[in-house]
Every structure is written in structure tokens, then in C-alpha cells.
Amino acid sequence: MIEKVIDAYKANFSENDEFLAIKSPGRINLIGEHTDYNNGYVFPAAIDKYIYTVGAKNKTNIINVVSLKYNQILTFDVTTTQKPSSNGWENYIIGVVEEFKKLGCKLSGFNAVFDGDIPRGAGLSSSAALENSFGVLLENLFDLSLSKKDIALASQQAEHNYAGVNCGLMDQYASIFGEKEKALVLNCDTNEHQLVNVYTHNYEIVLINTNVKHELSSSAYNERREQCETALKAIQKKYPQRRHLSEITLEELTSIEEKVTPVVYQRALYIVNENRRVLQAIEALESDDILQLGSLMFQSHQGLSESYEVSCDELDFLVEKAKQNPFIVGSRMMGGGFGGCTINIIEKGQTNDFVNSVAEEYIQKFGLKISVITVKFVNGTHVTCSK
Ligand code: GLA
Fold first, then answer.
1. 143 flagged as catalytic
2. Ligand 1 pocket check for 99: Cβ under 6 Å
3. pTM to 2 decimals?
4. For 75-100, how does the pLDDT look when each residue is reduced to its tens digit (9 = 90+)?
5. What domains are defined for the chain?
6. Does residue 170's CB lie within 6 angstroms of at least one atom of ligand 1?
């Protein structure tokens, strides 16, 4: 696909420009959902599905960006401050440019073209991959001396201030810090990570895409975050030294149950349990206990569905079927929720049988097909070639 994007760059702009080509991956998350904005642990990995961006400086103050997918061009003046756009994809680019300017970066005009093969709405963070691809492009075009962490944080700010989702740092961080064949245990309190080998022996990690993305996902996401903040405030009245939900104990939470609504209590209960599950999942992998990892994934799904209430019928259906299948040791919804993929640990060679066994009923119930996405763990956002 990178050749296609380079050709499109030449066709839209110039054959002779000294361009840079950037490859920026999406991500999966083994376990640790919605814990990132509660300063807890997450366990993501960058995957072999990418946004490809090709760009070069143009000696003006005008930024021109072509989306091949939407067949649209975004044009704006880098010297004027941009407001969020009503045209979704544009915010990821405008946002990153504006957030870099806030950091004091000196930018000028450039031309760029991008495309990608990360299925949208699948919960694989195509938006973080897009933000990072422009972050790394700007860093390299303008020699800004920003670190990977600076870029990930600017991408996250773009998401908050331009896309309107108050996300945590997991997606942007995993996309830029990913490493081949490794997953990352990211501590979202310190924003530091450790790399972990994920050996699954005769099992493989397979995503099954519900192919739905329910509308309320971004408003419900921001609402969950607010509910967590409400719970934290109630905890802090009694335990002022607690800085975030991921460091409170079950006992502390139980002791303030009467002080918050049942919904807020359930949200906090899920976070406390999910954060513990990430640490248990790391131990399970260290001791080669795939069954334990799988069991934690099923528990994670139950919490996401019943306490955090970010699942949906399609996801619940697939996880329920996975539970009944003797070759699947773990399954859960992945990402923000309300659609997208389940992540499954399935015995090698058994995926097709599972999919065939549920596909018909899924179509009958939901009027849609499911699809399988296989993934490899890869290196994070980087310059892949230049001319
Ligand atoms: C989205 C957000 C992340 C994270 C997940 C849920 O992907 O962008 O920051 O909160 O949802 O774990």
C-alpha cells in the first residue's frame, strides 16, 4: 500500500519532492480496558495494520493533506489557529498540528497523502495511528527534537481537543512504542512501559470483528470517565492521599459504597478489579498459564458488560459463544466498547470452525457478517522510506 500512497503523492503534488513515508500501526489490547485514564495498567501491542502517510515541505505556509480513503483534500494555513472541523478525519490532522504549535514547534507548510488498512470502527485505534503518523511526519520534516512520548501526548491532546474524546494514553502510546513480537505493559501513572513476550504455544490471538460501531460510543466514553472522577472524589473525602482509582483497595471502595450512586459504585468496582486483572495476566504469562490468562479475559468481559456497561449485544453474543467453545480459552470485547472486535485466545487451526459455527446465527440475529482479523505484533510509528 505504501507504493500506492507514494504514487498518489506524486500525482497530487510533485514527482520531484524529497518526501518522507511513515508507517503507523493500530493496536490491540490483551487486557486492561478503561484503566488508562484511571492511571492504571494496560497491556497493548502495536499490530500489522497501518496508516501510511507520505509528505514533504512545500515552502509555503499552507498545509494540504489528501485522504485517499475519503477522496478529499484538507487545506489550511499553518499561521492561523484552526477550530475543530465538522468533517471527522480532518480533526486528527488539524489537532496534531495545533497541539505541536502549542508546544512551541516552528512549523511551515507541507503536502501529504495518507491511506490505511486498519479497519475503521473496529476498536484498533486507526485514529491514534493517524495522529501519530502526522506527529512523526512533522517531527522529521521540521527537526523538532520531540520524544516519542511527547508525540504520543500531543496526539492524545488532539483527540481531546479536536476529536472530542477524552481518551487515555494507551492507543497513542502503543502505536508509537510498539515493538516486534512484544506487548507493552504500560503503567499509566508513570507513563513508562515494559516489554513482554507473549508466548501462547498452540494457541493464537484472533480478533473477531462484530462490524458494528454504535453511535453513542464517544459520549458514553466521556460519561464513564466522569463517573470514575466522581467515584474518586468520594474516595478522597475519606482517603485524601489516594490519587486515582487504580490505587484504591476493594475494602476502601466498599467503605464508601453508600456515598455514591449504585452506577458510580459499579464503575469504580470494575476499574479496581480490572487493574488487578492486568497484573494477574502478566503473572499468568510469566508462568505460562494460558488458561489463567483466558479466564481473566472472560472476567474482564463480564465486568465491562455488567458493571462498566460498555459492551453491546453483538459483543456479548460472540463472547458467550466463545465461552461455550472448548478450543477457546479466553475472549472479551476490546477497546472503548459499543462495537468493534472481540479478542480471543483460540487453539491454532480452530478459528474457522468457530466462525462457521456462529456466523449464520449472527447474521440472523444482527443482520450482519462477522469477520476475522489475524494480527502480528510490530514496531511502532516510524519513517519507512524517504526520497
Ligand atoms: C479507547 C481509548 C483508550 C482506552 C480504551 C479503553 O481506545 O482511546 O484510551 O481508554 O478506549 O480501554
1. no
2. no
3. 0.97
4. 999 999 999 999 999 999 999 999 99
5. 2-198+378-386 (3.30.230.10), 203-374 (3.30.70.890)
6. yes
